[in-house]
Amino acid sequence: MEPERNEVYERIPWETLEEKKTERPWLMYGLAGALVLGSLAYSFMSNRPGPVDVPSTAGTSATVTVASPPPPPVAAMPPTSSVMAAEADLYAVHPERVIDRVVAHAEWFVAEYLTVDGSEQGRQTLEALLPAGVPLPVAPEGTRVFVEWVRALAVEESGPLQFRVDVLARSLAAGGDGAYQRQPPLQVSVEVRMENETPQVVMPPSIRPADVGDAHTLSLSEVPDEIANAAREQSGGTEILGGIDSGSGQWQVVVVAPAPDGVSRPVTVIVP
């Protein structure tokens, strides 16, 4: 085995050791700086807006990099007229309420139109309800008309926000000191238009006798004795006109029976 050798240097190369020692930190600093610059360059390039083609004056397209413009302001819609807004509100929001108001106004108008009581208040009310320039009804001296009832029969739309309302009316009339006499029922057609959300009569009404129509034919059959006795007991009547068997043990019996006013009228009694 070769004996261990101990080398002895007369002079240690310190300059070599110091040179290698100083090169290593600068190398690390250079690498770190390169990484930082690379990161900054990538961030800048990724945040840049895309190129936009802008036509040049020579007819060729040039690529110019510009920032994206802010979105243009939304143009405000011009205000509509109050009439158009009112029509839209009436049609879209409250259609049933519009018809209810039109019907109520037509019934009120017919009651005032047919009434004759000689009062100044009645004349003023009717004058306000009639279209401007239409004269008031003229009645013979001493005539009195009392409206017994009015009821709307049908409503038909005849134009934008305009409706034709057919109103049934019954009145009592008297002349001088005479007694009131019931008048034949009338069918009064009234044209009503919504003006600024207010119903108004636009034309004098048309009047004709009410159409009663054909009477329904009622077919009655003979009623068993126990059913007839039960019908008399319930109604207080005496005369049994007949009845209709529903098929489930129930009868509709027509009986002539007196009412609290003393008048005997045909009524229907359900048995049992």
What can you see in these coordinates?
With 272 residues, the chain is α+β, with helices and mostly antiparallel strands. The chain has five helices and eleven strands. Strands 3, 4, 5, 6, 7 and 8 form a six-stranded antiparallel sheet that branches. A hairpin with a 5-residue loop joins strand 1 and strand 2. The longest helix has 33 residues. About 9% of the residues have low confidence.
User: Nearest-angstrom radius of gyration?
Assistant: 50 Å
Query: Whole-Å distance between the termini?
Result: 139 Å
Mean pLDDT: 80
The biggest beta sheet is recorded as: 6 strands, antiparallel
**Helical content, roughly?**
25-40%
Outline, from the CA principal axes?
flat
How would the blueprint of this fold be written?
Elements: H1 14-46, E1 51-55, E2 61-65, H2 82-92, H3 95-114, H4 120-129, E3 143-159, E4 162-175, E5 181-182, E6 186-195, E7 198-201, E8 206-209, H5 225-235, E9 239-245, E10 251-258, E11 264-271
Antiparallel strand pairs: 1-2, 3-4, 4-5, 4-6, 6-7, 6-8, 9-10, 10-11
List the keywords:
alpha+beta, 5 helices, six-stranded antiparallel beta sheet, 31% helix, flat, 272 residues
In short:
The protein is an alpha+beta fold and 272 residues long. It has five helices and eleven strands; from the N terminus they run H-E-E-H-H-H-E-E-E-E-E-E-H-E-E-E.
